[in-house]
Design goal:
The structure holds 2 protein chains of 2 kinds.
Chain A (H helix, E strand, L loop, with lengths): L4 H25 L4 H20 L3 H18 L7 H19 L8 H12 L21 E8 L11 H11 E8 L17 E8 L3 H7 L8 E6 L6 E3 L1 H6 L5 H10 L4 H5 L20 H26 L4 H25 E3 L1 H18 L3 E6 L4 E3 H22 L3 H6 L6 E10 L2 E8 L6 H10 L11 H5 L23 H10 L3 E7 L3 E9 L4 E9 L2 E6 L3 E6 L2 H5 L6 E4 L2 E7 H5 L10 E7 L2 E7 L1 E9 L13 E6 L5 E5 L1 H23 L1
Parallel strand pairs in A: 7-9, 14-22, 17-19
Antiparallel strand pairs in A: 1-3, 1-4, 2-3, 4-5, 6-8, 9-10, 10-12, 11-12, 13-14, 13-20, 15-18, 16-17, 18-19, 21-22
Helix pairs in contact in A: 1-2, 1-4, 1-13, 2-3, 3-4, 3-5, 4-5, 7-9, 11-12, 13-14, 14-18
Chain B lengths: L3 E5 L3 H13 L3 E5 L2 H10 L4 E5 L7 H9 L9 E5 L4 H10 L3 E4 L4 H12 L2
Parallel strand pairs in B: 1-2, 1-3, 3-4, 4-5
Helix pairs in contact in B: 2-3, 3-4
Classes of the chains: A alpha+beta, B alpha/beta.
Chain lengths: 676, 122
Amino acid sequence: MTHDPADTFRQEARDLLESLEQALLDLEQTPSDRELVDSAFRSLHTLKGSGAMFGFDEVADFVHEFETAFDRVRKGESAVTPALIAVALAAGDHVGRLIEEPGRYAAQGEPILAALQDIVGDQGSVKSTSVPAPSDDTRRARSWRIRFRLPDDALALGTNPLLLLDELRELGECDIEALTDDVPPLEEIDPRVCYLAWKVSLTTEAPREAIEDVFLFLSDGMTLEIEALEPGTSETVTADQASRVLPQDLDTDRDKSQAAGESPGKSAQPPQHREAKERQGSSSLRVPAERLDELMDRVGELVIAQARLSQMTGASDDLELKTVAEEIERLSSGLRDITMGIRMVPIGTLFGRFRRLVHDLSHELGKEVEFVASGEETELDKTVVEQLADPLVHLIRNAVDHGLEDPERRELAGKPRRGKVRLAAVHAGAEVAISIRDDGAGLDAERIRAKAESAGLISPEATLSDNELYQYIFHPGFSTASEVTSVSGRGVGMDAVKRTIEALRGSIELTSEPGSGTTVTLHLPLTLAIIDGMLVRVGEGRYSLPLLAVEECVELPESEVAEAQGRNFLNIRGSLVPFLRLRELFGASGEPDPHQKVIIVSSGEFRVGLVVDQIIGNNQTVIKPLSKLHANLGTFSGATILGDGSVALILDVAHLVNFGRGFEERLRDERMRREA
Amino acid sequence: MSKTILTIDDSASIRQMVSLTLSAAGYQVLQASDGEEGLEKATTHRIDAVLTDLNMPKMNGIEFIRQYRAHPSSAGVPIVFLTTESDDEMKQQAKQAGATGWIVKPFEQQKLLAVVKKVAGS
C-alpha cells in the first residue's frame, strides 16, 4: 500500500482552501473577528509550507505573496472589506487551479496578486532569496582549533554534547580534549548543568561554515571559538556574532550533511518498506473513496452469499449447520450496517460551497441575500451527497435569481431589503429531507398556467389547483423567466433536478405561497447500496421493491379481477388509488394467481397500487446497476441477486407512481370530455 | 533500541513525509496534529526528540514548547521546530520557550534526517 505524499498534499490543500474560503466568507459577515483572520492566515501558511515541500512551487510562490498581503490584514494594517474578500476568494480559487493543473494557470495569478496588493496597500514583497555566503575555502584539508562551552541549560533543553562531538568527528580527523576546569566539587554539582568545555583540533576539507553549522542551534549563551591554524584567518565567534550566521539558508545545511559524510543511500531507501513501522497514526484516517466503494461491493456479495447459505440451510435438518448459518447472518448484517455507516458523510461538506455560490450570485445580480444553512451534520451516503451538488446548485440559483425580488421591490412589498435563502437538512425516518426556502415573491400560478397552456400541456378549460400548476415547472423545457439571465431561466434545470433526485430514489416536492416565498424539498433515501426490499412474483419473474416505499398490501377484490380491463382504481378507505397490473405491464405469461395482491406504494404525496401474483417476503436487496443499455429503463432502477443465484429486477417506485398518475389524469381528462 | 521521534504538525502531508523519512532511517515515529495532542503524547510516551510545527490550531508550537518544557519529562529531550518564518521573531520566541533547534521549510528529506540525527543521534 503506497501513498504518494503529493496526493495527501492535494487532498489536504483542498481542505485548506475550503476552510480558507469559509473563513473569508465568515469574515465578510464579521470583519472584526480576529479568530477568522488567524484561521485564514493559518490555512495559507500551511499551504505555502507544504506546497513548497511537495514540489508545488507555483502554489508556494503564489501563496507566499498571498500570505504576505494577507499578513497586513492580520497585523491590522489593512481592513477587511468586501473588495478584499472578493479578491481573496479569487486568489483561493486560483490556488485551487494551480494545484489541480500545475503549469497551466501560473500566469493568471499576476493580476489577482496585483489587485490584492493594491487593496492591502502593499507594494509586494521582494522574495528573500538568501544566498549563502560564498566560501573562499577550497577543498583542501585545513586544520582548525575549536573551543566551545555550552550554555548552562543546554542539557535540559535537549542538546547532547556527545552528538556535537560526533558531528565534528565526521568532518575529519579530530583530537578532542575535555576542559574540566569549571567542574565544581561533587556535592555542588547540579546534574542538569554542563560544566565541561571542549577543545578540538580538527583537520577537514569542509569549509568554516560546516563547522559553524555543527553549533547552529547553540548561539545563545555559548562560547565558540573557531580558529584556523594558518596565519591571517584567526577568528573568534562569540555568541553575539554567532547569531549573525543563523539565518543562513538550508543550502549550508545540505552542504554540511553531505560534508558530514551522510551516506545518500541511507535516506534514499524506499520509505514504503518501512511503513509498517508507522504503528502510531492519528485517530482518524483518510481512505480513498474507491476503497469504500469496493468494500461496499464486497459486503454486497457477502450478503448475497449469506442469503444463499440461509436458503440452503433452511431446507436442511443439520442443527449445527443452521447455528453457523444464523451466526453468519447476524455477522453479515452487522458488517453491512457498519460499512454503510462508514460511507455516510455529513452533508455540510456540500453546504460550504453554496455560501460561496450565494455570495457570488448576490453580487452578480445586485440582490442582497442572507444565506442560512442548517443541519450540516445530517449524514447521507457519500454517493448521494456527491450527486446532490448539481441539483442543489440549481435550486439555490433559482431561489436567488427567480425567487428573491430586487431590494427595491422588496421594500415596496414591505419586506426587508435583504432576502433570505434557507437551506436545511433534517433526518426523517429512513430518509433525509433537504429544503431550500426563499422568502421571495413565490411562484406566479397565472404565468405558469399561461405558459403551460401555450405549450399545450393543459387545456384552457382544465381546473387545476395552484399546487398542481406549480408542478409544471418540472416539465422539460419549462421556464417562466421572461428573460433568460446568465444565472438561470434557461428552462433546463428543474426537470434535470427532478430526474437526478429520482435517480437517487428520492422525490421532490414544491410549495409556494404568493408573496412569501417558495420551498423546494428533496426527500432522499439514506443509502443507495443495500436496501430492505420486498420481494414479489409477477408471472415467472421476481421483482424487488424498496420496503420503505410500501404503505400496505391488500388483496385484489374479486370484482376487480374479473373486470380486467376496468377502471383500475381501488377504493382504499374512501380514497381512490390507481393501480397497475404488473402482469400486463410486463407481458407476463401463464395463468394469474387466483388471489392477486395489491401493494400500495407511495412517492411523495402520491400513491399507486401494484398488482402482483405473490408476495414472497422481505429480503436484503443489494442494488446492482443495470447495464448501460438498460440504464434508462424507467420502470426498473437496478437488479439484485437472490439467494438462489437468480436475478430480480428492482422496481422504480417513483416512476411507477408517475405512471399511475398518468392514468389518473387521462381518466380525468376523459371524464371532462364526456361532461363537455 | 531505535529512537522515537514525535512529529507534531497540523499538515497531514508534512507528518506523512516526516514519518516516512524517519521510519525509513530506522526511527520510531509518533504523530500528533496539534499542540494539545502533542503535549499529551510527549508526556505519556518515552520519546527521544520532538519535531513540531509552530503555526497550528488549538495550541501553537511555541505554547507547546513552553508547556512541554514545564513538564519534568522534557528534560534532555531536544525539540526541533519547523518554521517558514524568515524573520527571526518566531525563531527567537521558540528558542526562548526552550527549543533546541529548527528546520526551515521547505526542506528536503536529507536535511530533516541530518537535523534529527544532529539532535537525537541515530
